[in-house]
Amino acid sequence: MDETTASEALIPLFKLDRLLNQDQAGRRVTLLGSIDDKPALLTAERAAFPSDVKALEAFHQCLCNVKNLGTNDIYYWYLACASQGEDSPPELKLNLIHPCTEKHIRKYSPQGVRMVTETPEIYEDRVRPYIIKQREEGRLDWVYNVLEGRKEQKDIIYRDPGQDGAKDEGFILAPDLNWDRKTLTSMHLLAIVERRDIWSLRDLKQTHITWLKHMGEKILEATVKKYPDVDKDQVKLYMHYQPTFYHLHIHVVHVMLEPTSTQAIGKAFGLENLISQLEAMAGGPEAGMADLSLTYILGEAHDLWTQVFQPLKGAMEG
Length: 318
What we know:
This protein has helices spanning 3-13, 53-62, 102-108, 120-136, 141-147, 209-226, 271-279, 303-317; strands spanning 15-23, 28-35, 38-45, 64-72, 75-81, 92-97, 113-118, 158-160, 171-175, 188-193, 235-240, 249-254, 268-270, 294-299. It is of the alpha+beta class. The strands form four sheets. Strands 8-9-10-12-11-13 form a six-stranded antiparallel sheet. A three-stranded antiparallel sheet has the order 1-2-3, covered by helices on one side. The chain has a three-stranded antiparallel sheet with strand order 4-5-6.
């Protein structure tokens, strides 16, 4: 038996003892076991997807045991497997956007990123009008479907009525559509506020501090109650700027979730830090995040880069 054949013969001999570790959002596992009564470690990681069209078509045709996890407006998400057999466990999380828009296509296409500084003046004169336009185009229908009880009600983990029953201070907590809802170390939830007058962290003021603290406390309490194996100090709360959609929401993730660009400096703003920043502001209760210059990252395909910051850069350099 040559060396290659002998090496390949070892894998079928592996006897599993226990799962030692799981990371990369569940895509890589390390198993402890034995081969011929000697201890052995086996690490398995899902291979990268092929890039040629024919191979991808073949992959799509192999999908089976597709199970819908939820549907909301143009968004669908599923569990599936790529191997035949009725008892094959789900190995893939599928997200479908149908019909998708040109904006979706740009968002999911490879693109460079830029660091930009948004002054209060740029926000008021250029960015806020852009946000208003996005909201007027019906991009929040799926959010209102959830808040108004038309979709995803079975997925809601917690619904807060607001402090002293104040409806405009309420929020709901539910799994993010990108989480498989099983792997706790990749936990990702969304807290979406009921009120519709706060579109992003730019609208937060000192008058909102008590409300933000209340939300933070209730989110942590609800999360650890739903997932007892998670402690409060294993949960991270943050907001995005620029966010994917302009209706205030808080990301709730496990601290072990693999860091990506969505958690990077210049994209994710921690809730506790935002509260501290508001508390330290001068100017009275109406002082807020709209009064500050914010530096953050933008993709080169983002409308705000092509329509606002790239022209401003050209004007400054010209």
